[in-house]
Amino acid sequence: MAWTLDSAVERHKEAPYTFYIPSDEVLDRLQAGDLVKLIFMAEETLDNGCEAERMWVKIVERDASDFRGELVNHPVYLNSLQYGDMIRFNAVHICSTQLEDPHAKEMDDYYNYKVIVSKDVLEREQFNFMMKDEPNNEHDTGWTFFSGYEDDDYNADSTNFQVVSLGVVLNMDDSIIPYLDAEPPSAYERDVESGKFVFVEDYDWDAYYSES
């Protein structure tokens, strides 16, 4: 099956808080003998329903941002590739390395810290109201996000909500980063004209806690 290399840089641009790529510091350190992971895209959907295989390649030589390396995985689905094949690639194709990355902790935090979102937020890929309650555990941020289109019946059904990584909502709108450390209870609503979030001073927390 024919394949192409996917751009990890482009994937990161689409989802900067959930799709990790090595920092420039790490990429600059790569040399012959190091292992890097590449995304091999199939021209057709693979037997497992996916579109790609991620596999390790050992760098053989480097010329600026261009590399040549040896495939050190046995492909499971891409039968046009074999262990030991020589692969030419660029730094933009590298989605992981085995070198320690001092910037990786930021991505870990975006993944490990959790928020609650309504499924309507995920469907619309936008949120217009957010509220922070006391966290339940060390990885719970206490934040819940709403699209603003949910009605009372929708909100009363817990199956309409799910826990996701903080990075998921930051991919939608990272302008909320300055508010993330707000003390609970706090509520913010997007201003229609400016598009910015503003603090809701008169939010009825007594009613909220009585319904919880």
Give the arrangement of secondary structure elements.
Blueprint: E1 3-5, H1 8-14, H2 24-29, E2 35-42, E3 52-63, E4 66-71, E5 86-90, E6 94-97, H3 104-112, E7 114-118, H4 119-124, E8 129-132, E9 140-146, H5 152-156, E10 161-165, H6 166-172, E11 186-190, E12 197-199, H7 205-211
Parallel strand pairs: 7-9
Antiparallel strand pairs: 1-2, 2-3, 2-6, 3-4, 4-5, 7-10, 8-9, 8-11, 11-12
As residue ranges, the low-confidence spans are none
Task: Give the mean pLDDT.
Answer: 94
Biggest β-sheet, characterized?
Answer: 6 strands, antiparallel
Order of helices and strands: EHHEEEEEHEHEEHEHEEH
Notes on the structure:
- The chain is α+β, with helices and mostly antiparallel strands and 212 residues long.
- The mean pLDDT is 94.
- It has helices at 8-14, 24-29, 104-112, 119-124, 152-156, 166-172, 205-211; strands spanning 3-5, 35-42, 52-63, 66-71, 86-90, 94-97, 114-118, 129-132, 140-146, 161-165, 186-190, 197-199.
- The strands form two sheets. Strands 1, 2, 3, 4, 5 and 6 form a six-stranded antiparallel β-sheet that branches. A six-stranded mixed β-sheet has the order 10-7-9-8-11-12.
- Helix 3 (104-112) packs across helix 6.
- The radius of gyration is 22 Å and the shape is elongated.
- It contains seven helices and twelve strands.
Write a brief structural summary.
The chain has 212 residues and is an alpha+beta fold.
